[in-house]
Amino acid sequence: MITQPHIPDADGFYAAWLQAHEGLDDSQSADLNARLVLLLANQCGSQAVLLDCIAAAAAAPGGRA
Fold it and tell me: What is the pTM (predicted TM-score) of this model?
């Protein structure tokens, strides 16, 4: 699992992500995020890495206690 910054233009990615949410209600925004997660997970393709990422996200502040 890569934990160091690895996106060439992280600010540009974040800006495009926020722009994709413009005009969406909370439900539509959550649906967009879910579709994005699934697409990115498919790009990764490694079950072990994906499970490590789930565990890391759950353990992070704001994740599961």
Answer: 0.83
Which tens digit of pLDDT belongs to each residue from 12-46? Answer: 999 999 999 999 999 999 999 999 999 999 999 99
SS3 content of the chain, % helix, strand, coil (to 5): 70, 0, 30
CB atoms within 10 A of CB 53: 18
Residue located via tokens 């565990």: 55
What are the structure tokens assigned to 9, written together? Answer: 């233009």
Query: Tell me, what amino acid is at 65?
Result: A
Alpha-carbon distance of 63 to 65, in angstroms, equals 6
Cα dihedral 8, 41, 45, 4 in deg (nearest 10): 40
At which residue do the structure tokens 């789930």 appear? 54
